[in-house]
C-alpha cells in the first residue's frame, strides 16, 4: 500500500527508531529517535534527596522536561506530571527509600510525537541506569485525519492538519494501557481503532528495544 | 493478648488506604455515595457583572469561579484569522495547601476561533479566562472545565469594527453578540483505586479519595456523543473494557450537566 | 560448576523456573510476585543449579553487606567518619571500627583521605556502615585501612566485579614481573565502581590507567594477556 504521507510511509508504519545508550556520563542515559524527533534522557540516582522531598518509604522521582526551543511552559509541566506518575507505577521505588531518582529529558529535535519519544527515551535511560523496574513502558502517538484515516507516529506537519491527536503508553508484559492523552474530536470507535493500531506499533518498539539491549550486551563483552 | 481498637477517625488517619478499601468492599464511599454517583453539581451563570462572561460552579464542596474578560489584541503570526483564549487557573492556599497542575490549554479548541476575528491580521479578541478555586475538595479539574465552558457560553461581546484609516477598533456597547460555540463539552473524572483483588472506579473523587487513589482518568464528551479528550496519567494499567465503561458513564454525566446548565439558563432569562 | 547464561532479559519478563528441588535462590535483578518470578533489570539471566540471577550493569552503587569498597572521607561527626562510597547515602565509619582502635588510640584520618573498607551493615532504611577491621590479625593480610597517595579510577559496577574476580590472577602476574624490577605497586578494587592504584612512577600509573580503561570490552583471557605483556621498563 503506497500512501500520501509526507515521507511516503504506510499509514500504520512508525519511523525508523534509533537508540543510543550511555550518551552522556551519568548513572544512566539514552538518546531515542523516532525519525527526526530526538529526545535525550539522563538519569541520576538513586542519590541523596533534599529533606523537603524525602519520602520515608519510597524513592522520590523528579522529572524535568526541557523543550527544544524556549523555556519550559505549561505543556512541559504536564509532560513532567505524566512521566512522573507513569514512572512511579513501574519503578520499584520501595527499594530505595529516602533517595532521589532524577530524570531529565531534553528534546534535541522536535518533529512530532515528542511525548512518546520522551517516554521511550526515559525507558531506555532507566534500563541503562540499572534501576529496578516491575515492567517497562513504551509509547506511540497517532493522529486521526479529517477523512478518518489514522496515521501512526505523525510528523509535525501531520499533527497540525488533523482532527485529533493521541498518545498511548503501554506496559510491556500485558500490553495494557498505562497512559493516554487524546485531544481533538473523535468517536469512541475511532478511539479504540487508534488504541489497537498503537498497540501493534508499541510491540514493534518493544522488539526494537529488545534488539538494542541484546546487541549492547553482546558488544559490551 | 488484647486487641487494640481505634476510633474510626484515628483509623482513617493512620491507614487511609485500608480505610477506603473497607468502605469500597461494601460498595459505598466514605461520604455515603455509590461508586458511580457524582456529587451534587450547581452552576450559577453571570454572577460577576464586571466580566464579559462568568460562572460559579460547585461540585460537592469544590467551588470554582470563572470569569472571562475580552480584550482586543494583535493576532498571532501563525494564525492571523483566529483570536485566542488564555486560560489561567488559580489554586491559592485559600482553597487547599496542595498545588495541582491546572488544566492544559487544549480546551480552547471548542471555540470557533474565527469568530473572534475583528479584522484579519490587525485585531482579534483575546479572551482571558481566570479560574479561581475557592474551595478545594477534589476533582477540581472537572469543576474548572465546567466553569470555563459555561462562562464561555455566557460571554457576550460588543460588536466591534476595525477602522482602517485610524487603525482603531470601535466597539458599540448597545449591540452585544453572544459567543458562537461550536460544541459544549463537559467532563467526567474517575479515580481508580487498586483494592488488591479488584480495581474500583470512583466517579468524581473527593480530595481524600484523590490522595489515596492510584490513577485518574478524565473523559470529556460533547453533545453529539463525540469525545474531545481522554486523559489518563499512567498510575496503573487498565483494559479497553474499563475505558468503554468510563466513556459510557461520561456520556450519562454529560446529559446530567447539560440539564443543570439548561435549567440555570432558563431561570436567568426569566430574571 | 560455572554459572550458565540462559538468555537476555528485560525488566518485566517472566522467568519460568523448573527445579528438582523445592527451593530456589533468587539473586539480584529477580523478584517474586505471588506465583511468578519477574525480572527487574535488563541483562543476561544466569543460573547455577537452583540459583538464578541477572548479570546487569549500572554505575550507581547500592551497598550490600560484605562488599569491599573504596571510599573518601568527607566529614567527622562525633565518634564517626562520614565516608562517600558513591551510594545514595553517605556511609558511617565509627572510630572504633579499626584494628587496635580504642577510646584513647584513635585512628588519625582527615577529610579527603581515601580508604579501603568493608560494608558491615547495609539496609535500605538506614545509612550504610563500613568498617576497616581485618579478619585475621596476621600482619601480612592487612587489607582494609587508609590508602595513601595513589590514583582513583571510576568505572561501571560490572567491570569492577569482573576485575575483582580476576584480582588474584592479575596480582600473581604483576608480582612476578615487578619482583624482578623491584617496583612497588598497590591496587585496591572497590565493588562500588572505584579502583585505586599506586605506582612509584607516574609513567606506570598512566600505563595502568590506559589498560584498565580499555580492557572493559575485552575477554578475561585477552585481558590477562595484556597484563603479561605490560611494558613497565624505563
UniProtKB/TrEMBL annotation, chain A:
One of its GO terms (cellular component) is nuclear exosome (RNase complex). Keywords: Exosome, Nucleus, rRNA processing. It comes from the Eukaryota. InterPro entries: ExoRNase_PH_dom1, ExoRNase_PH_dom2, ExoRNase_PH_dom2_sf, PNPase/RNase_PH_dom_sf, Ribosomal_Su5_D2-typ_SF, RNase_PH. Its main location: nucleus. It is found in: Nucleus. PANTHER family: EXOSOME COMPLEX COMPONENT, EXOSOME COMPLEX COMPONENT RRP46. This is 4581_t:CDS:1. It comes from Diversispora eburnea. The lineage of its organism: Eukaryota, Fungi, Fungi incertae sedis, Mucoromycota, Glomeromycotina.
TrEMBL record, chain B:
Keywords: Cytoplasm, Exosome, Nucleus, RNA-binding, rRNA processing. Residues 37-158, 188-252 form the Exoribonuclease phosphorolytic domain. Pfam families: RNase_PH, RNase_PH_C. Its main location: cytoplasm. It is found in: Cytoplasm; Nucleus, Nucleolus. GO terms for biological process: exonucleolytic trimming to generate mature 3'-end of 5.8S rRNA from tricistronic rRNA transcript (SSU-rRNA, 5.8S rRNA, LSU-rRNA); nuclear mRNA surveillance; nuclear polyadenylation-dependent rRNA catabolic process; rRNA catabolic process; TRAMP-dependent tRNA surveillance pathway; U1 snRNA 3'-end processing; U4 snRNA 3'-end processing; U5 snRNA 3'-end processing. Transmembrane segments: none annotated. It comes from the Eukaryota. GO terms for cellular component: cytoplasmic exosome (RNase complex); nuclear exosome (RNase complex); nucleolus. One of its GO terms (molecular function) is mRNA 3'-UTR AU-rich region binding. Belongs to the RNase PH family. This is Ribosomal RNA-processing protein 43. It comes from Diversispora eburnea.
UniProtKB/TrEMBL annotation, chain C:
Residues 150-200 form the K Homology domain. Residues 24-60 form the Exosome complex exonuclease Rrp40 N-terminal domain. It is found in: Nucleus, Nucleolus. Keywords: Exosome, RNA-binding, rRNA processing. GO terms for cellular component: cytoplasmic exosome (RNase complex); nuclear exosome (RNase complex); nucleolus. Gene3D superfamilies: 2.40.50.100, K Homology domain, type 1, Nucleic acid-binding proteins. InterPro entries: Exosome_RNA_bind1/RRP40/RRP4 (IPR026699), KH_dom_type_1 (IPR004088), KH_dom_type_1_sf (IPR036612), NA-bd_OB-fold (IPR012340), Rrp40_N_euk (IPR041054), Rrp40_S1 (IPR037319). One of its GO terms (biological process) is nuclear polyadenylation-dependent rRNA catabolic process. CDD domains: S1_Rrp40. Belongs to the RRP40 family. This is Ribosomal RNA-processing protein 40. One of its GO terms (molecular function) is RNA binding. Pfam families: KH_6, Rrp40_N, RRP40_S1.
Amino acid at each position: 500500500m503506497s500512501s500520501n504521507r509526507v515521507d511516503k510511509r504506510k499509514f500504520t508504519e512508525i519511523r525508523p527508531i534509533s537508540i543510543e545508550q550511555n550518551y552522556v556520563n551519568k548513572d544512566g542515559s539514552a538518546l531515542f529517535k523516532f525519525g527526526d524527533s530526538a529526545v535525550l534522557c539522563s538519569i541520576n540516582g538513586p542519590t541523596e534527596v533534599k529533606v523537603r522531598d524525602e519520602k520515608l518509604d519510597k524513592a522520590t522521582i523528579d522529572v524535568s522536561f526541557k523543550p527544544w526551543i524556549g523555556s519550559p511552559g505549561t505543556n512541559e509541566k504536564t509532560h513532567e506530571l505524566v512521566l512522573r506518575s507513569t514512572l512511579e507505577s513501574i519503578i520499584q521505588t520501595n527499594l530505595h527509600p529516602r533517595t532521589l531518582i532524577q530524570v531529565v529529558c531534553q528534546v534535541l529535535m522536535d518533529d512530532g510525537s515528542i511525548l512518546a519519544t520522551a517516554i521511550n527515551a526515559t525507558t531506555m535511560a532507566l534500563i541503562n541506569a540499572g534501576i529496578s523496574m516491575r515492567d517497562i513502558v513504551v509509547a506511540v502517538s497517532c493522529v486521526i485525519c479529517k477523512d478518518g484515516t489514522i496515521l501512526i507516529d505523525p510528523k509535525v506537519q501531520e499533527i497540525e492538519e488533523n482532527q485529533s491527536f493521541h498518545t498511548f503508553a503501554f506496559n510491556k508484559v500485558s500490553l495494557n494501557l498505562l497512559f493516554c492523552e487524546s485531544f481533538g474530536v473523535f468517536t469512541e470507535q475511532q478511539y479504540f481503532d487508534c488504541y489497537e493500531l498503537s498497540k501493534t506499533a508499541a510491540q514493534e518498539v518493544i522488539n526494537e528495544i529488545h534488539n538494542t539491549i541484546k546487541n549492547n550486551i553482546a558488544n559490551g563483552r | 493478648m488484647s486487641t487494640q481498637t481505634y476510633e474510626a477517625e484515628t483509623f482513617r488517619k493512620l491507614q487511609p488506604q485500608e480505610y477506603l478499601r473497607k468502605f469500597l468492599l461494601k460498595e459505598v464511599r466514605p461520604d455515603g455515595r455509590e461508586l458511580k454517583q457524582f456529587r451534587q453539581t450547581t452552576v450559577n451563570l453571570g454572577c460577576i457583572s464586571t466580566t464579559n462572561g462568568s460562572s460559579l460552579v460547585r461540585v460537592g464542596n469544590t467551588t470554582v469561579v470563572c470569569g472571562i474578560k475580552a480584550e482586543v489584541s494583535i493576532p498571532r503570526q501563525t494564525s492571523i484569522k483566529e483570536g485566542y483564549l488564555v486560560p489561567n487557573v488559580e489554586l491559592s492556599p485559600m482553597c487547599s495547601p496542595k498545588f495541582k497542575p491546572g488544566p492544559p490549554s487544549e480546551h480552547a479548541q471548542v471555540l470557533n476561533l474565527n469568530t473572534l476575528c475583528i479584522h484579519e491580521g490587525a485585531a482579534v479578541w483575546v479572551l482571558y479566562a481566570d479560574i479561581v478555586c475557592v474551595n478545594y475538595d477534589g476533582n477540581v479539574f472537572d469543576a474548572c472545565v465546567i466553569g470555563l465552558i459555561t462562562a464561555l457560553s455566557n460571554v457576550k461581546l460588543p460588536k466591534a469594527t476595525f477602522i482602517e484609516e485610524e487603525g482603531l477598533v470601535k466597539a458599540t456597547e448597545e449591540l452585544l453578540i453572544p459567543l458562537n460555540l461550536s460544541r459544549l463539552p463537559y467532563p467526567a473524572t474517575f479515580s481508580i483505586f487498586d483494592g488488591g483483588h479488584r480495581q474500583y472506579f470512583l466517579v468524581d473523587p473527593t480530595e481524600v479519595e484523590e490522595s489515596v487513589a492510584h490513577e485518574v482518568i478524565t473523559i470529556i464528551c460533547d453533545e453529539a456523543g463525540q469525545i474531545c479528550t481522554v486523559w489518563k496519567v499512567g498510575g496503573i494499567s487498565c483494559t479497553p473494557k474499563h475505558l468503554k465503561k468510563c466513556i459510557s458513564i461520561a456520556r450519562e454525566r454529560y446529559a446530567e450537566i447539560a440539564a443543570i446548565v439548561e435549567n440555570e439558563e432558563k431561570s436567568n432569562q426569566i430574571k | 560448576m560455572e554459572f550458565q547464561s540462559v538468555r537476555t532479559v528485560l525488566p518485566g519478563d517472566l522467568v519460568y523456573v523448573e527445579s528438582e528441588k523445592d527451593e530456589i535462590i533468587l539473586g539480584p535483578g529477580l523478584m517474586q510476585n505471588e506465583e511468578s518470578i519477574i525480572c527487574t533489570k535488563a541483562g543476561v539471566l544466569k543460573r547455577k543449579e537452583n540459583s538464578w540471577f541477572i548479570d546487569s550493569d549500572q554505575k550507581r552503587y547500592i551497598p550490600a553487606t560484605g562488599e569491599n569498597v573504596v571510599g573518601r572521607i568527607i566529614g567527622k561527626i562525633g565518634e564517626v567518619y562520614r565516608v562517600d562510597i558513591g551510594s545514595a547515602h553517605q556511609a558511617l565509619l565509627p572510630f572504633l571500627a579499626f584494628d587496635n582502635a580504642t577510646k584513647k588510640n584513635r585512628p588519625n584520618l582527615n577529610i579527603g583521605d581515601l580508604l579501603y573498607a568493608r560494608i558491615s551493615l547495609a539496609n535500605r532504611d538506614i545509612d550504610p556502615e563500613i568498617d576497616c577491621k581485618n579478619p585475621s590479625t596476621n600482619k601480612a593480610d592487612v587489607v582494609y585501612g587508609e590508602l595513601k597517595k595513589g590514583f582513583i579510577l571510576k568505572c561501571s559496577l560490572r567491570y569492577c566485579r569482573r576485575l575483582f574476580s580476576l584480582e588474584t590472577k592479575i596480582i600473581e602476574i604483576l608480582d612476578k614481573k615487578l619482583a624482578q624490577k623491584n617496583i612497588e605497586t598497590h591496587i585496591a578494587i572497590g565493588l562500588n565502581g572505584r579502583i585505586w592504584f599506586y605506582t612509584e612512577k607516574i609513567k606506570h600509573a598512566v600505563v595502568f590507567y590506559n589498560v584498565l580503561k580499555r580492557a572493559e570490552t575485552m575477554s578475561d583471557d585477552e585481558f590477562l594477556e595484556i597484563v603479561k605483556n605490560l611494558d613497565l621498563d624505563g
